[in-house]
Amino acid sequence: MEAFVSSTLAVAVAEIGDKTQLLALFLAARFAQKSAIISGIFVATLLNHFVSAVLGVWIAEWVAPETVKWIVGLSFIAVGLWLLLPDKDGDDGGRWLQYGAFGATLILFFLAEVGDKTQIATVLLAAKYQTMFWVVVGSTLGLMLANVPVVYLGEMLMKKIPVAAVRAAACILFCILGVLTLMGGGISFG
């Protein structure tokens, strides 16, 4: 259960102000089919985070427990510090819009999550807890909790949420997870 709660919280907080959240805002402004956008976000996230969790569990199984502890702990701290950097605006995904609300969302979200902070967090969480199911369910739920309101309430939410404060809170959360991992934090890696 700890893996589920930690994954949900970490990804939901990390996602606020992230490029995929801005992508959700863009897609909601472009397409009227909100349920198709949400379905695309869900399927893309589920696929992406499943692959990430598989990688994280594999790392935990094949790398020495002490090494995993250091890699995961220091990586949590690095991701925490990375959260302080604002995302750069990129391609608006224009060529994918021809596939409709679901298709465009599925493709764009999957691609946007590759190498993203929340994907890396999912790999780290799976390595830390050595469970794919609860990490995937939690990280997917966390991403949905952060993005579904944006699809429906979009611009109003983006104006009211202090992104800098959320980034700082997420940084602190990931750094605490990193320090607890390095200290042993009651989590077994072997």
Automatic annotation (TrEMBL):
Q: Which family does it belong to?
A: Belongs to the GDT1 family.
**Organism phylogeny:** Bacteria, Pseudomonadati, Pseudomonadota, Betaproteobacteria, Neisseriales
Where does this chain mainly localize? Answer: membrane
The membrane topology term of the UniProt record is: Multi-pass membrane protein
- Please give the InterPro entries that the UniProt record associates with this protein: GDT1-like
Protein name (database record): GDT1 family protein
Q: Name one Pfam family in it.
A: GDT1
One Gene Ontology cellular component annotation?
Answer: membrane
Give compartment(s): Membrane
Alphabetical UniProt keywords: Membrane, Transmembrane, Transmembrane helix
